[in-house]
Design a protein that fits this description.
Radius of gyration: 27 Å
CATH class of the largest domain: Mainly Alpha
Number of domains: 3
Distance between the termini: 79 Å
Number of strands: 17
CATH topology of the largest domain: Glycosyltransferase
Strand order of the largest sheet: 12-13-17-16
């Protein structure tokens, strides 16, 4: 790095010394009486040789060339003016958001976008707590890459996709989060974090932006992972509970249809049909798996989406220590109730169904659930409306303003204001107020926080109603949401909407060109009933033979499975109507 302080290069004698911590200390003296203006070059390295080599390389280039390149780089990174026109602050936050996202791409591992350079409540954590948001979450990273696509930066999104392909596990999945060198940190299975990379690949493919990258093996492996685990995820997008999650399944369904579109276009017709059928099966059961018809949060609306439905006995990730139909919320304060019926906990994740095109914005179930979450999660702040993640949440600043340390009180998230704005745009409602709210939730420097303080002012704690709480700032996902929202407004339609998903599902059922009458059985998720006259599909990673009967074993039928690439093999049994 070169800093111009004069037009005369500094000539000085360097003294190298060993600092107490073992690092090399470099000292110099400037005769300011003789050199009133000068140029300083600063270089870092693993030792004196690398640092001095870098420094001399910098000084060997004329300063004016450094300055010209520096300015050109900033112009190259300029936010699209078209997005600024969709804002309500003249494009101020759009320019900052664009640069915030770019700044969170690692400069050593090209394409690696971390969730944030910040640590939530870092002031309350010791140096031996290595966690924080300076890790890669594929969910957050795909949102960042999607925002770059919204800005027209296809090459940046492709770098992210190639990086993800290099960190993909042999089984097609990804670590819950990982360091930029690919080393896993947490080990949970989150199906949306496998689905989003497929969706990103599809988006880039549709823009003809893949270059020489062969995306089919990457997509096939990830889709295979989804067919082994879906519909039950070990953790949903809030990284806490297992089960059937509307937001997770929105991503999974969409990813399977995207994967089917890609592989079919590359000649894998049977695999494409297999993946499409799997997505159809999940979509056909979606409302059955993720809703309650005995809701208690709004006495006038008993039928609505839940935050998550826990796995039943015999299903993947079932916890026998938790009573049936219950979920544990482990981030609540000691002594507080932590076990709740799933039917009494809601979040806004169901809006992802509209966002990607799995459900229409005027679907009655969507409209009912909106009323429920607005009654229990919406916070009207002086700067605009904001929503909490889910009721009974304990991830947030404590009630007395102290930092979250294992427990607290969940606060309002600006990113959820962006998600609501996307829904309103899809539904033809008023979304401008939410754009303004997001802009006002940002800090003086334009940073969007993970959470805002949603209670009365506590000046002694530096907490003010509607302003940043003590969690992460900036949250890159929030900046990506804002950028995509501006692009959506500029286009007049939701930027994240997936055309092949919308055409397949966001139409009245009587107008659909297909009907799913399939039930899927896997050893890890057995079933006990199915639609009469439907198809029983059996799936396994290995080849198998099915021996079955439809007359109480008076006769036997034998069926050999068919291999369908990376998902393994399957066999279909057509049941009768009688």
């Amino acid at each position: 790095m070169a800093i111009r302080i004069s037009r005369t290069h500094l000539q000085m004698t360097w003294n190298f010394g060993q600092a107490l911590d073992g690092n090399i200390a470099v000292m110099g003296e400037i005769d300011v009486a003789k050199y009133r203006e000068f140029t300083i070059a600063i270089a870092l390295g693993e030792g004196p040789h690398s640092a001095v080599a870098g420094l001399m390389q910098t000084l060997s280039t004329p300063y004016d060339e450094h300055l010209k390149r520096f300015i050109e780089q900033w112009h190259r990174a300029a936010a699209p003016a078209r997005l600024a026109a969709a804002s309500t602050d003249g494009g101020h936050l759009a320019r900052i958001s664009h640069n915030v996202i770019l700044a969170h791409e690692d400069k050593t591992y090209s394409g690696a976008f971390i969730a944030s350079a910040s640590i939530p409540w870092g002031n309350a954590k010791s140096d031996d707590d290595l966690g924080g948001y300076h890790l890669v979450w594929t969910r957050d990273m795909c949102h960042s890459a999607g925002a770059m696509l919204a800005c027209g930066r296809v090459d940046t999104a492709r770098r992210a996709l190639v990086y993800l392909a290099c960190t993909q596990h042999p089984d097609g999945g990804f670590a819950q989060n990982f360091w930029i060198d690919g080393t896993p940190y947490w080990s949970g299975i989150q199906l949306d974090e496998v689905a989003f990379p497929i969706i990103l690949a599809w988006r880039i493919w549709k823009l003809d932006g893949l270059g020489n990258f062969d995306v089919v093996p990457f997509v096939s492996s990830a889709a295979s992972f989804l067919t082994r685990y879906a519909p039950v995820t070990q953790q949903e997008r809030w990284e806490e509970n297992a089960g059937y999650s509307p937001s997770t399944l929105a991503a999974v369904i969409s990813a399977l249809i995207c994967a089917a579109d890609i592989v079919r276009a590359h000649g894998a017709t049977e695999l494409g049909s297999f993946l499409e059928s799997y997505g159809d099966w999940i979509e056909a059961h979606l409302d059955e798996w993720t809703t309650t018809n005995r809701g208690v949060l709004n006495t006038e609306i008993p039928y609505h989406y839940m935050r998550i439905r826990p796995p039943a006995e015999g299903e993947p990730f079932h916890n026998a220590k938790i009573p049936p139909g219950m979920i544990n919320i482990s981030n609540r304060a000691p002594g507080e109730k932590y076990a709740f019926e799933a039917r009494e906990v809601v979040d806004g994740g169901f809006l992802e169904l509209v966002r990607y095109g799995v459900r229409r914005p005027d679907d009655p179930l969507i409209l009912n659930t909106l009323k429920v979450i607005d009654g229990v999660l919406k916070i009207d702040t002086p700067y605009g409306a904001c929503w909490r993640r889910y009721n009974h949440d304990g991830y947030g600043q404590q009630k007395d303003g102290e930092p979250f340390v294992h427990f607290g009180q969940g606060r309002a998230w600006p990113i959820l204001t962006g998600e609501r704005a996307h829904y309103e745009l899809a539904a033809g409602g008023d979304h401008a107020e939410y754009i303004t709210a997001l802009e006002r939730f940002s800090s003086f420097g334009g940073m969007l926080p993970e959470q805002v303080w949603d209670y009365a002012d506590m000046p002694a704690e530096g907490l003010y109603f509607g302003r940043s709480a003590g969690s992460a700032q900036p949250l890159v996902w929030a900046h990506a949401e804002y950028i995509k929202l501006l692009r959506s407004v500029a286009d007049g339609k939701v930027f994240d909407r997936i055309s092949v998903v919308e055409k397949r599902y966001a139409v009245p059922r009587e107008k659909r060109t297909f009907q799913s009458r399939m039930e899927i059985f896997q050893l890890g998720r057995p079933i006990c009933d199915m639609v009469q006259g439907g198809t029983q599909r059996i799936i396994d990673q290995r080849r198998f033979r099915v021996i079955w009967t439809d007359d109480s074993w008076a006769t036997k039928n034998t069926l050999e499975s068919r291999v369908v690439g990376k998902p393994g093999s399957f066999a279909d049994i057509q049941t009768s109507w009688t």
